[in-house]
Every structure is written in structure tokens, then in C-alpha cells.
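Lab notes, practical 5.
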Amino acid sequence: MFSFNTTGRILVGAGAAGEIARHVAPLLGPRILLVTDRGLMALGLIAPAIASLEAAGIALAIHDDISADPPEAQVLAGVAAAKAHGATGILAIGGGSPMDVAKLIALLARSGESLSAIYGVGRAQGPRLPLVLVPTTAGTGSEVTPIAIITTGEAEKKGVVSPLLLPDMALLDADLTLGLPPAITAATGIDAMVHAIEAYASRSPNNNPISQGLARRALQLLGAHIRTAYADGQNRAARNGMLIGSLLAGQAFANSPVAAVHALAYPLGGHFHIPHSLSNALVLPHVLRFNLPEAAALYAEIAGDAFPGLLATPLPARAEAFIMALEQLARDLNLPTTLRAAGIPETALPMLARDAMAQTRLLVNNPRPLTKADALAIYRAAF
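Output from the prediction step:
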């Protein structure tokens, strides 16, 4: 037995954000809290959506004090803003951080639950306010996942996992990603590939044929479009392919959860504020090599989806060739490929290994059991 849950409605179309009011007003009602970040506001990317909402007579309040690795305070400020506005619905336009914060605002502003009481799996009770998510990066897949990740205390990250966090609608508009800088395009694209890879090989008892099929199609789209999207950011076809690939990978890992790549990435973001997508890219090949004794056949199965040229590689060598192709992709996209290059001091590696082992929710899904010594060895290989 397995279950599969996803966002109730998905709307895909270039330019859709410019007429967003007619898509979201029936769901979100007359008083909407828009959750975004100041960078997107400054770029003017959200201006067409704001104009559409205001022209429709919707009372709009904006919560844009959202940072990468958002802390609890930003969630709680958003809850207060939603209540003060009398919000009938929550709309997020942004990357993973605004979307994750919006999920929790929608839940807590309606249910009155305490944030500290709902960390973990299945602890949220609800109900929540109506919720629509609009991604501006092709990476997190947050618009189709029942997960929100928040930084607690100084550095630790915790997750809220509940079907209640799945939005009522996801709206994908490739035009919102046309201005994405190449470095962010690269890191978020590899992040989406990580989601698909880890979902496909997950040891979760809920790993299932639907998730596996979505993961493979995600890798096909991401592998086909990532270099074009990086080199030609105005290419709508490539941007749309990346958005859909990211969404499919999100649907896959929302039901067949991710594992040690994410567990080892979280401390990098928590302590050194490395963007989550880059953190995943930095540890990805080294975790995959660690997993080879248990997952080589699985990696060989999906290698040709991301890199069709690998289909000519004999099966016994294909998994290692897949890892090498991922390493080459990161180099081709000019991403930092070592922890040293990302500014991580070698003295921090034991602390990172310790903190990674606290991510038990993720580590249980890894194809190969991982100890603290293994985590340290992986960080050293990545250094």
C-alpha cells in the first residue's frame, strides 16, 4: 500500500501571473496577504500580479520581509500581518523561502496552532486559509510539496510536514523566471535534479511507481533544458521546461522523501547561509558515491534520463558515469564544486557532521545507512 498526494490544481502558462486575479480570486477571496521577498519587489517582477489584483478590487497586504533560510520570526510576523489584515487567503510569489513561509502563515493564521508544536511529520491539525503558490525559481518544487523548512535558533533547520501544507493551486509562469541570474538558474536546477534522484532511490516505504515515473520525467526535462536556461535566460521554452521539471521532481519527493543529500546540505545553510540549492549541489556527488554499494542499479536506471549519452555506457559502469556527469554539469554551470570554494572552513566539518545526524527524518530514507563517521568522510570528500 502507498499513498500519493499533490496540489489540487496546477495552472501552467507564460504570462499567467499578469492576469492572476481571475485565477486566484475565487479561491482566496477579497482580502489577500501576498508573501514575497524584497529582491523580487525591487526587480519589479511582481508588479503585473499586484496590478491585476488591485484592478480586481482585492484588498492586498504585502509581507516581503523574507530571507533565505527564513527564521521563525518571519513566519510569526506574517501570521500577525495576516490576522491584522483579516486575510481571506494567502498568495506567495517567490522561491522556496517565501512559499514555505506562506504555507505556515496560511496554517497558523487560521488554526491558531503554535509553530513549535507542529515541527515533525503529521503534527499539524489545521484548518488553514486558502493558499496559492507561484514559484519564481525552478528548483524547490515547494508549490507541490507538503513541507515547510524553517531555521530555528542560531543554525538548526526543522521541517513541518503535513498534507495541510499542499496549496489549493500552483501557478507556473515561465515569464517570472526570465530574469533569473545564471548562477541561481544553475544551482536551483541541480537542486531539482537532486529531488528527482533522491526520490527515485528513496528507502521510504512510500516509494512508489507514480513518484518514480515523475522523477524520471523530471530528469528528462531538467537534463534537456538546464544548459540552455543557464546560457540563454530569455529562452521561454527552456524556462518552461525547467519549471515543469522542478514541479514533477517536487511531486516525486513529496511522496517518496529525500535523504542524505538534504540531511548534509541543511547544516551548510544553517551555519554558513549557503543557499539550499547550492548546498545540495556541493554534497550531491559524494553522497551518491557513498550510496553506490546499495543504489548503483537505481542510479544506472535513471542516468540516461538526465544524460541520454550515458545509455551507451555499459550498465556496470553507468552509475559512476552518472555521478561524473553530474560533477561535470556543475563545472559547466560555473558553480563552486568544493566546500572550500564555498567558504566553508575545514575546522567546521566535525560540527557539520554532528548536525547532519540530527536530520533523522531524512536519513531514514537514504539507500545506505549513514553514521556520523560516514557524514564526516563525505564532508571531507566534498572539501
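Observations recorded by the TA: The chain has two domains: 9-176, 178-382. The chain has a mean pLDDT of 96.
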